[in-house]
Structures are given as C-alpha cells and as structure tokens.
C-alpha cells in the first residue's frame, strides 16, 4: 500500500502508535508518506497560536534528526496533496479531542479522505480506552463518573512501550517538503521539555497533588493536560509511570489517576454523544432561555466583573493561555449562573485561549458548571464567587499577581470591593466604580433568578 501518515497532534518521537503501526506493517507498505497538516488558528488567541506553532516546529526538527521529513501543508491543501501522492491508504489518529476546528477531527477527515477513494485506518493515540469497551451491562455509556470509575479502574494496567527503529521508518519514507507558510526556525524540542517536566512532577509535586489541586496560585498542577493536547505523550506511558510509583504514595497517586479517569469518562461520552458539543446533555434543558447579554459577556471576558477572583482568573487566561482547574469552575459558574449566559459562549471562548484545550473535557466541564451536563453539579449548588475567593485565595496572593491595583489591599477586604468600597477609597485611594468596577450583578439576586429559571423545568 501507499500509505500517508497524518501526524498532526501526535507530536512525539517516542511511543508513537503511528510509527509503531508503520513498523509492524512494513512488509505491506510500498511507500510511506509522513504528512503534517497545519491547523488554521487565525481565530485563536495569539498565545495559543504561537504555542501550537512552537510545538510543530520542535517536532519537525526532532524528526529531521532521524532523517524523517514530513510533507507540511495546510488542511485546505491536504486533498490536493493526497491526490498528487496517489495514496491508497491513510493512517489517522481516531481519538484526538484537542483540534482547534471540528473539521479536523477523525469523523470529518475520514469522510474527506474517502471521497478521494482512500482507505482510512484509524489508530488509538491519545486516550486509554476504546469507548465501547467501557460500557455498562446494558451496552450503554456510563453517565455517572463514579460508576464509570469503579467499573473501569481495574483495567488500567502496565502496557509495553513501542519498539520501532527510526532507520527503518526512514528507509521506506518519501522525503517531504514544507508547502506551508510556517517558518521552521528557532526551534525547541518541546517533547523533551515536556518529558523533563513530567519527571520533575513525579519526583516532587505529585506527593502534594491533593493539596495542589486547590492552590490557585499555580498555573497548573502537572501540566499534563497541555502535553496530551499536543500529543507529546501517550496516555499509556503516563499510566505506566503512575502504576510504577503507586505504592510510594497511594493517596496522591490515586487522586491523579482519578483525574485521568475523568478525562477518559468525558472522552467516551463525547464520542457517543457528539451533539453535546453544542447542546445540553440533559435534553430537558435544551430549551432553557439563557441570557445573551453582550455587555456582561464582554465584562467577563476582559476581567471587569467587579469580582476580583473572577477578573484575576480571566486576565491570566487572556495573557498566558493558562487557568487553574479550580478557577475554571469559578469563572464558568459565574458566567452560567451569576450572569446566566449560555455555556456555549464560555466554552467557545476557552477554546480560543486555553493551551490545553480538549473538546470533551472543556464541553463537559462547562456543562457541569451550567448544571446541564451528565453527572453535573445540581443547579441549587451555586458557587458564591466571594466565598470561593476567601477559601482558595485567602490571602489574596493570586488576585494581587493579576490585579496590580490591589497589591497593597488587606486580605480582609480584597475579596469583595463593592461591599468595602469606602475602605478602599479611604485606605488605598481606590475608587470602586471608577478605578475598578463595581460588581456587575448581585450574587443573591442572581441565585434567586437561577432557582426560578431551573425550577421551571
């Protein structure tokens, strides 16, 4: 066969199932063409776009060391390329959820290749489970995480590492060229940096994992979400590492494994219910009359809500592409509950900015906050942003790193400027409503409105 191997979002040299497939089927392959289609991130935030390109360039440089030279094209030109190469088959990752556009995912590209009379071979590269292997006795996906976790946790086992020879891969591979506008200069091996960061986490921070999950001063706890979003690791490598170290600290290791299982849970649900990318999982809420207040949405996006914990989190996201998971829950609940704005607006905004964006996790995380998803937070358990701030940033350290105007403000009043606006003006010469916005909504009134709207269903 004349095989094209699609490398986008599988940006790793080590433990790459695509390379392993080529090695195992070399007797069936006449020629192999490694192809790296570049995503269009024109509507993404610059911080996300730049990071994607940095990873791509580092990967291409790493491939070059092994005499592997992919064809680099845009997705728009991919059809022309496969016709020119006269491919008979393409090998494509079938379980990636982190593409910037839906049209790049497996179901869409599979249809596109088949229109060119090319046989598509789907390969697991990014998730641990085959979705249908996780189903309940009724052959349906679990819709409650605890049940999914209990039924499938035992299936996490040590798996052998991939063994392939780079020389053999290069021997059958055609030398490609860069047919995109991407300039392949100033490259860093991001996979190497990611592996070092992961090893550092295993050697140190994982021992404090359960505490770090609520430390909002951190950009992230392990960084694993970002590494997986770009395919810098195989999740099975991660599971191997966790199982090997498990006996040294069962509590923290199990806590981390549980988070990985959440990722798998959401992946299975999204693969079986793709319509929930834009519709409420709970069908009864699909007719919810959300607010579409654009001025409120702009205030939320720009960190101008008058609630410091929300504003600090959004400003950091806008600047860095990072947001701690605890803060994601805070700002998503604020948008969907306090402002009662459609969760799809927030999900789309996160997609523009988050470096670790994963469609399944992001969508279902938002639906959890909006109380429209499976196993979601009950609508009556609505976060109070001031209480969340006092609990998870008690001294205001995080707020002060993002809102410099509050650098000298006492932790006793920093969480609720509107309530303490007299003290802000007298003690710090900060006029609330002028130098920093007053709260754009009252939490109690918002809560009453949410209760009223949800009780209608």
From TrEMBL:
GO molecular function (one): deoxyribodipyrimidine photo-lyase activity
Photolyase/cryptochrome alpha/beta domain ranges (all copies): 1-128
Cofactor(s) annotated in UniProt: FAD
The entry's keywords: Chromophore, FAD, Flavoprotein
Pfam families associated with the record: DNA_photolyase (PF00875), FAD_binding_7 (PF03441)
An annotated GO BP: response to light stimulus
Origin: domain of life: Bacteria
Residues reported in the UniProt entry to bind FAD: 209, 256, 259-266, 356-358
InterPro entries: Crypto/Photolyase_FAD-like_sf (IPR036134), Crypto/Photolyase_N_sf (IPR036155), Cryptochr/Photolyase_FAD-bd (IPR005101), Cryptochrome/DNA_photolyase_1 (IPR002081), DNA_photolyase_N (IPR006050), Rossmann-like_a/b/a_fold (IPR014729)
Record Gene3D superfamilies: 1.25.40.80, DNA Cyclobutane Dipyrimidine Photolyase, subunit A, domain 3, HUPs
Site location (Electron transfer via tryptophanyl radical): 290, 343, 366
Cofactor binding notes: Binds 1 FAD per subunit.
PROSITE patterns: PHR_CRY_ALPHA_BETA
Keyword Amino-acid biosynthesis found: no
Family to which this protein belongs: Belongs to the DNA photolyase family.
Designated name of the protein: Deoxyribodipyrimidine photo-lyase
């Amino acid at each position: 066969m004349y095989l094209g191997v699609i490398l986008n979002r599988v940006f790793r040299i080590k433990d790459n199932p695509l390379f392993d497939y080529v090695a195992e089927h070399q007797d069936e392959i006449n020629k192999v063409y490694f192809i790296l289609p570049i995503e269009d991130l024109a509507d993404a935030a610059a911080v996300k776009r730049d990071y994607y390109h940095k990873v791509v360039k580092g990967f291409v440089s790493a491939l070059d060391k092994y005499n592997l030279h992919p064809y680099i094209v845009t997705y728009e030109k991919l059809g022309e390329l496969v016709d020119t190469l006269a491919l008979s088959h393409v090998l494509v990752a079938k379980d990636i959820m982190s593409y910037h556009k839906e049209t790049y995912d497996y179901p869409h590209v599979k249809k596109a290749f088949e229109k060119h009379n090319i046989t598509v071979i789907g390969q697991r590269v990014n998730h641990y489970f085959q979705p249908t292997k996780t189903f309940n006795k009724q052959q349906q996906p679990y819709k409650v995480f605890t049940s999914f976790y209990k039924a499938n946790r035992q299936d996490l086992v040590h798996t052998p590492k991939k063994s392939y020879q780079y020389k053999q891969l290069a021997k059958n591979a055609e030398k490609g060229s860069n047919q995109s506008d991407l300039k392949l200069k100033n490259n860093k091996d991001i996979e190497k940096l990611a592996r070092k960061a992961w090893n550092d986490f295993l050697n140190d921070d994982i021992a404090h994992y359960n505490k770090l999950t609520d430390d909002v001063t951190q950009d992230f706890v392990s960084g694993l979400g970002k590494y997986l979003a770009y395919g810098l690791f195989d999740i099975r490598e991660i599971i191997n590492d966790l199982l090997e170290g498990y006996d040294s600290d069962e509590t923290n290791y199990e806590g981390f494994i549980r988070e990985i299982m959440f990722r798998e849970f959401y992946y299975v649900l999204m693969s079986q219910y793709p319509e929930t990318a834009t519709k409420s999982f709970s069908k009864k809420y699909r007719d919810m009359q959300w607010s579409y207040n654009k001025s409120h949405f702009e205030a939320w996006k720009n960190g101008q809500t008058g609630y410091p914990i929300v504003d600090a989190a959004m400003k950091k996201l806008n600047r860095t592409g990072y947001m701690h998971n605890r803060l994601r829950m805070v700002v998503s609940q604020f948008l969907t509950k306090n402002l009662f704005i459609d969760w799809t607006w927030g999900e789309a905004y996160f997609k523009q900015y988050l470096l670790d964006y994963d469609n399944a996790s992001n969508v279902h995380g938002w639906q959890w906050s909006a109380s429209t998803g499976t196993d979601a937070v009950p609508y009556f358990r609505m976060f109070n942003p001031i209480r969340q701030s006092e609990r998870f940033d008690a001294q205001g350290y995080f707020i002060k790193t993002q809102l410099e105007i509050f650098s000298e403000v006492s932790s006793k009043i920093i969480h609720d400027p509107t309530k303490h606006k007299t003290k802000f003006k007298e003690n710090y010469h900060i006029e609330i409503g002028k130098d920093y916005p007053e709260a754009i909504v009252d939490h109690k009134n918002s809560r009453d409105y949410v209760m009223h709207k949800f009780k209608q269903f």
